[in-house]
């Protein structure tokens, strides 16, 4: 009887200790959320400095500092089309002090096998930019003025017109989609990031380039590049003279979400706090003006749940069209 009583007491004590331990962990998490942030926050940008992702992250970080009252540091960790920086954040402590600023290339990375994880391995917070300013452009010396000119030239020279992309990335996917829509065959090559592709188009080493308008704006202003179409249903208010692909008879759409994520397992209260701060930033006139002046796109806030739904849906679309994403 004494043995049974002792066993019962030991079991009860174990349960009590475990319960206390869980309560302690919950209390610690709650306390962490209450005092967050109380030290520097690091945002990892998984590309080199100077590009559009880097600009949007730095613009966000400088404004978040004012909202959160702490220093927000941006670190560039490039490699594997963004996967190197993403892995660093996935493996970081989910305490709300390390975050990733990325876009949907994390989804195509997974589909083509550059990564085995995407947003499901993170705690997405919110998007700051929905870039619907993608434009297809050619060198001004090409004598092409619209999409019909491009299609006619591509049909005269099947497999010869060089379309620049980051193979496996979003630009590659867009090129493959247009090939199907127009019934043409491009020579799609890997020409690096947006800045590299601009240099190649200027030098005449490639024939076609797709980028957000702001990435090529200086070349449009100088007359070196000709925008053939905005890859969207509606004209962009910041460059309204450029016809859409849809206006020219091609149902070709593109948009890219730039968003912030914590490592998976971040406290929901901290995610909510950061999302609220991001929303305030996107509503600030100074943030909006800097974004529009630099990249001809207006900030758009997308909250946590809507962002996750979008990423889930987009990943499914890419997986269903895997043959258009893979080389």
From TrEMBL:
Q: Which UniProt keywords apply?
A: Receptor, Signal
UniProt cross-references to InterPro entries, sorted A to Z = BUG, Bug_dom1
Stretch forming the signal peptide: 1-20
Q: Which Gene3D superfamilies match?
A: Bordetella uptake gene, domain 1 (3.40.190.150), Periplasmic binding protein-like II (3.40.190.10)
Please give one Pfam family short name: TctC
The cross-references to CDD domains, in alphabetical order and at most eight, read:
PBP2_Bug_TTT
Family label: Belongs to the UPF0065 (bug) family.
Q: What is this protein called?
A: Tripartite-type tricarboxylate transporter, receptor component TctC
What is the source species? Pasteurella testudinis DSM 23072
């Amino acid at each position: 009887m004494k043995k049974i009583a002792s066993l019962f007491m030991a079991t009860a004590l174990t349960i009590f200790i475990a319960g206390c331990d869980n309560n302690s962990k919950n209390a610690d998490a709650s306390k962490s959320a209450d005092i967050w942030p109380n030290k520097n926050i690091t945002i990892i940008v998984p590309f080199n400095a100077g590009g559009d992702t880097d600009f949007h992250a730095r613009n966000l970080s400088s404004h978040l500092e004012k909202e959160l009252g702490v220093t927000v540091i941006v670190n560039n960790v490039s490699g594997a089309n963004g996967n190197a920086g993403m892995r660093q954040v996935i493996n970081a402590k989910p305490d709300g002090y390390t975050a990733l600023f990325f876009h949907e290339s994390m989804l195509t990375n997974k589909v083509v096998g550059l990564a085995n994880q995407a947003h499901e391995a993170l705690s997405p917070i919110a998007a700051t930019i929905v870039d619907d300013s993608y434009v297809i452009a050619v060198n001004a010396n090409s004598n092409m003025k619209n999409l019909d000119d491009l299609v006619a030239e591509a049909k005269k020279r099947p497999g010869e017109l060089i379309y620049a992309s980051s193979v496996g990335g979003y630009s590659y996917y867009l090129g493959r989609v247009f090939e199907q829509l127009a019934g043409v065959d491009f020579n799609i090559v890997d020409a690096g990031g947006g800045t590299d592709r601009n240099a190649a188009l200027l030098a005449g080493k490639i024939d076609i380039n797709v980028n957000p308008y702001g990435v090529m704006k200086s070349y449009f202003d100088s007359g070196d590049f000709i925008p053939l179409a905005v890859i969207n249903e509606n004209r962009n208010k910041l460059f309204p003279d450029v016809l859409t692909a849809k206006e020219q008879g091609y149902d070709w759409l593109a948009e890219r979400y730039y968003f912030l994520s914590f490592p998976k397992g971040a406290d929901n209260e901290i995610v909510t706090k950061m999302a609220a701060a991001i929303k305030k930033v996107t509503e600030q006139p100074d943030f909006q003006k800097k974004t529009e002046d630099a990249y001809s796109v207006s900030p758009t806030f997308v909250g946590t749940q809507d962002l996750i739904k979008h990423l889930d849906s987009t990943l499914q679309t890419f997986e269903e069209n895997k043959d258009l994403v893979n080389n």
